[in-house]
Automatic annotation (TrEMBL):
Source organism phylogeny: Bacteria, Pseudomonadati, Pseudomonadota, Alphaproteobacteria, Hyphomicrobiales
The name this protein goes by in its record: Glutamate--tRNA ligase
Self-association state and partner proteins as the record states: Monomer.
Residue ranges of the motif 'KMSKS' region: 250-254
Species for this entry: Roseibium aggregatum
Residues annotated for ATP binding in this entry: K253
Subcellular location: Cytoplasm
BP GO annotations: glutamyl-tRNA aminoacylation
């Protein structure tokens, strides 16, 4: 058996860090098990689904290093859903219901007022052909419900019916089907709900494992029943905790916050995003992982916590900085060249320890090449003016900074911050940055002389 998983986003917006968590979990699991990863677009909502969003999702996945083994669109598979629905209807497992949403809500309200769970009473299953014809004559269109197998032959006398599975993340789980309403699989407008289409697809595409958010746990018992009604063995399920904001709020792609595209545009490294999305909310240390191969080795569904996983953008910045500090020139050379930076390893090795993102190197390249808006405090004017005369002769080397500051210390008596900071400000325009010992040779003698008054 080949392990097969799927990520099934709706192309109705840009995906965010919360969406990418199940995508990464599925892809990492497939790679670790030598299996297949399917990208399957849930695009049956023809009004809200857009090609631009599908393209954006593929771009985001590619940026993270996720390459699907197969791509599918649910909009291409309507005939498959029609055939599967007819099979369930013929078996008497899908029945029409003519209640309006308002009627259903009033019924649920009455049940709650009586202290009863708001479970659908299968009124639609009791209707005769004549009653259904009367509803049709009124212009009503039915929605279709699946009869849950929570009875011993009489669907109006339900009994406790436990559906159990061993969850990859949560261990042994049980859902009582008697506590649930028969699920709607077909809307009154004839469109299919995702619960139904995903099951048909999972069967047709030989999906062996479904890894998704814990908000789907309660649906799993119903879906297992539908798999079995369609003559298929249910996949293995795993439900991971959900990423939330630091305040515990759910993430939403409608808000546009923390979209993968915005994180990419902010100059963040894909492995910083992947590391945080995968490791947050697990028993493992949240640390930057340098490559997808290393993350595959580290990935472990049993380490996922039961509590929510709070995503802190500040932690992402910290992870990103730690990754950037370790990046060799070969990993960033093309990006530096695109920014017009040609300093090679000497430049990158000097500045990378001060970069939160690779893009930060641009500011230090301007320090090296100029022009620089030099800063001189009033109390440092005399000191800086005398510094030019004490600059050592010859080539600027790694020893020049030490020789120069030693001469200035002996001449002026200055030391520590009072000695180093005025020189840094006049030469770089900054209060902080790379070690001046390494930066000075990159700036070069002529730039140094031009920046000193």
């Amino acid at each position: 058996m080949t392990v097969t998983v799927r990520f099934a986003p709706s192309p109705t917006g840009h995906i965010h860090i919360g969406n990418i968590r199940p995508a990464l979990y599925n892809w990492l699991f497939a790679k670790k098990m030598g299996g297949r990863f399917i990208l399957r677009f849930d695009d049956t909502d023809l009004v809200r689904s857009k090609q631009e969003y599908a393209d954006s999702i593929e771009t985001d996945l590619h940026w993270l290093g996720i390459e699907p083994d197969l791509k599918e669109r649910q909009s291409d598979r309507i005939a498959n859903y029609d055939a599967a629905a007819q099979k369930l209807k013929d078996a008497g497992l899908l029945y029409p219901c003519y209640e309006t949403p308002d009627e259903l809500e009033r019924r649920r309200s009455r049940q709650r007022a009586l202290g009863r769970p708001p479970v659908y009473d299968r009124a639609g299953l009791k209707q005769t052909a004549e009653e259904r014809a009367a509803f049709e004559a009124e212009g009503r269109k039915p929605h279709w419900r699946f009869v849950l197998p929570n009875h011993d032959g009489n669907p109006f006398e339900t009994r406790r019916t436990d559906v159990a599975w061993s969850d990859l993340c949560r261990g042994d789980q049980t859902i009582d089907l008697a506590s649930m309403s028969d699920p709607v699989l077909i809307r009154a407008d004839g469109s299919y709900l995702y619960t139904f289409t995903s099951i048909v697809d999972d069967i047709d595409m030989d999906v062996t494992h479904i890894i998704r958010g814990e908000d789907h746990v309660s649906n799993t018992g119903v879906q297992i029943a539908i798999f079995e009604a369609m003559g298929a063995k249910p996949p293995v399920f795993g439900h991971h905790n959900l990423l939330t904001t630091i305040d515990g709020e759910g993430l939403s792609k409608r808000k546009g916050a923390l979209s993968i595209g915005s994180l990419r545009e902010a100059g963040l490294e894909p492995m910083a995003v992947a590391s945080l999305a995968v490791l947050t909310g697990t028993s493992q240390a949240v640390e930057p992982v340098a490559s997808m191969d290393a993350l595959i080795e580290k990935f472990d569904l049993t380490s996922v916590s039961r509590s929510s996983a709070k995503f802190d953008p500040e932690e992402l910045k910290s992870l990103n900085a730690r990754l950037v500090h370790d990046l060799p020139l070969e990993a960033v050379e093309s990006r530096l060249a695109a920014m017009g930076i040609s300093g090679g390893a000497d430049f990158w090795d000097t500045v990378r320890g001060n970069c939160e993102t690779v893009d930060d190197a641009r500011a230090y390249w301007l320090v090296v090449t100029g022009p620089v808006e030099s800063r001189i405090e009033d109390e440092d004017q005399e000191f800086v003016s005398g510094a030019k005369a004490l600059l050592p002769e010859g080539d600027i080397t790694l020893e020049t900074w030490g020789e120069w500051t030693s001469a200035l210390k002996a001449e002026t008596g200055r030391k520590g911050r009072g000695l180093f900071m005025p020189l840094r400000r006049v030469l770089t325009g900054m209060d902080h940055g790379p070690d001046m010992k390494a930066l000075l040779p990159l700036i070069g003698r002529q730039n140094i002389l031009d920046r000193l008054p």
